[in-house]
Automatic annotation (TrEMBL):
This is DUF350 domain-containing protein. It is found in: Cell membrane. It comes from Alkalihalophilus lindianensis. The keyword Nucleus does not apply. Keywords: Cell membrane, Membrane, Transmembrane, Transmembrane helix. InterPro entries: DUF350. It is a multi-pass membrane protein.
Length: 138
């Protein structure tokens, strides 16, 4: 094992880590910005449904970012694919949520603490993230 190799590439690890965390923060911010209620306040109040939904969104983003990291050939490639994937993830989540909200307002159900709805929407975000991640793997 050549420890010198790992020491020489450690800066790449740090750069990709910081870039990925910033992209994760951007994706999470977009999701929170589009949410009609304060997730932070509701989670502090003990709303498990909101926590599950947000956790699912974040997990879906991580899956997408993980795929972008593995598939990228450089930092610019990572940023481009991650941004595309984040936008696709957010748009698909909004579309799917709209499809399921034709007869009921799922956002209000989650806000009221409906754990089943929060878990369902969080799970949908993870599943969509897996699909999006698979499409950017080349």
């Amino acid at each position: 094992m050549d420890i010198l190799y790992y020491l020489q590439t450690f800066d790449h690890f740090i750069i990709y880590l910081v870039a990925s965390l910033l992209l994760f923060g951007l994706g999470t911010f977009l999701f929170k910005w589009l949410t009609p209620y304060s997730e932070r306040d509701l989670i502090r109040a003990g709303n498990v449904a909101v926590s599950l939904k947000l956790l699912g969104k974040m997990a879906g983003l991580v899956v997408v970012l993980q795929s972008a990291i593995r598939s990228s050939i450089n930092l610019i490639d990572l940023a481009i694919w991650a941004l595309i994937a984040i936008v696709i993830q957010v748009v698909l989540h909004l579309i799917i949520e709209h499809v399921f909200t034709r007869k009921t307002n799922l956002a209000k159900e989650v806000e009221k603490g409906n754990v089943a709805v929060g878990l369902f929407l969080g799970g949908i975000s993870i599943l969509v993230g897996l699909i999006v991640a698979a499409t950017i793997s080349y």
